[in-house]
Structure formats: C-alpha cells, structure tokens
Design brief:
By secondary structure, the protein is mainly alpha-helical. It has one domain (2-18, 34-190): dinb family like domain (Four Helix Bundle (Hemerythrin (Met), subunit A), Up-down Bundle). Helix content is 56%, strand content 6%. The chain has helices spanning 2-18, 36-54, 60-64, 74-93, 107-127, 150-174; strands spanning 136-139, 145-148, 183-184, 189-190. The strands form 2 sheets. A two-stranded antiparallel sheet has the order 1-2. Strands 3-4 form a two-stranded antiparallel ribbon. Strand 3 and strand 4 form a beta hairpin. The chain is globular and about 45 Å long. This is DinB family protein. Residues 1-19 form the signal peptide. InterPro entries: DinB/YfiT-like (IPR034660). Keywords: Signal.
Length: 192
C-alpha cells in the first residue's frame, strides 16, 4: 500500500511541477559557511544544474539516439538518472526506495521528478550537521537489505548521475542538438 501511495504521489508531483518552473535553471546562491551538509548540497546543486541543461529542449530524435547497439539511448540514460535521484533522496529522507513502473512516465515527467528529487535532497543536506545519519538502504531481490554510509552516496549514485549527464550532453551533440549556449557550469548561471 505504501508503494502504491508513493507512486501516486510521484505522478501528482510530476504533473504539478510540469506546470511550474523547474528547479536548477540556475544554481542557487552558495551558503555562507562550509559544512559537510552545505558542501554535499552544493554538489547536488551542480548535478541538478547540469542535468537541467543537458536535458533541456531534447527532441524525440534526441531521446531515441544512442551511439551503438550496446549502449543506452538518451531516454534510457535519463531513466537511469531518475533511479539514481530516487536513491539519493531516499537516503537523505530515510525512506524506502520506491521506483515508478518502467515506461510509466513521459520524458517531461521523468525530468521534472529527477530535478525535484535533486532539489529536495539538496535542501535536506544543506541543513544537515551530520551526514552519517544518511544511510542508503538497497533492498535486493532476495529480500535482504544492504546498508551503505553516505560516503557511498557520493561515489555511487551522485557521481554516477554526474557521469551520465555528461553522456547525455555527448549524445545530444552527436544527434545534432548541441548543449545550449550561454550556460556557465563554472558560475551556475546563464549568460544572456
């Protein structure tokens, strides 16, 4: 029942967010102090900004593009990043991971949910004093639950999502739709 309720919430949030401005058009201003939480938060903000622009204005031909038979398409890569965003948010919310059914979300819903997940995770981390309480729990097919400390969040789902954002940028260039001009990854702002 909890999984069904979470899935319904996913759809409601995704539809609601599509009608609003999505997070990460620009990176929020950085915190005044360096803490473990503010640094982890900023890392996710950088990821959110990259993902926002890597996936902005993708066309159907871009979404289906893949450079070879044994690779993911842009759409499949975006779906994987959604899963990584759910893993990250679940760890900082201390909730069970609940994933949408395969092919149940449109690309725009997937994109909105991914960006929202990154923003929520960043907001939680920004206020955190102790990252050791954020434990990633992965339920395996045999029913066993494996637990990993926040360190694994950094080198696992977060770093993996950054890696895959780069793939989307490369793939979109190859499909003829280059990364938007004026986006500064250094400043997290868009030059006019």
């Amino acid at each position: 029942m909890k999984s069904l309720l979470s899935l319904i919430l996913f759809f409601v949030m995704a539809n609601h967010i599509e009608a609003q401005e999505l997070p990460y058009h620009e990176i929020p201003n950085y915190p005044e102090t360096y803490t473990a939480g503010s640094v982890a938060s900023r890392l996710i903000d950088g990821l959110g900004f990259r993902y926002y622009w890597a996936t902005k204005d993708l066309k159907e031909k871009d979404l289906q593009y893949k450079p070879g038979d044994n690779t993911r398409s842009i759409l499949e890569t975006a779906d994987h990043i959604l899963i990584l965003s759910i893993m990250t948010l679940s760890a900082v919310e201390n909730t069970e991971m609940t994933f949408p059914d395969k092919d149940s979300l449109s690309f725009n819903e997937m994109r909105a949910l991914t960006l929202t997940n990154f923003k929520k995770a960043s907001d939680i981390l920004k206020e955190a004093k102790d990252l050791s309480k954020f434990v990633m729990k992965i339920k395996r097919g045999n029913g066993n639950v494996e637990e990993y400390p926040f360190w694994n969040q950094l080198n696992g789902p977060i770093a993996d999502a950054i890696w895959h954002c780069g793939q989307i940028v490369s793939f979109r260039r190859s499909s003829g739709n280059p990364f938007p001009k004026g986006v500064s990854l250094l400043t997290g702002k868009v030059r006019q």
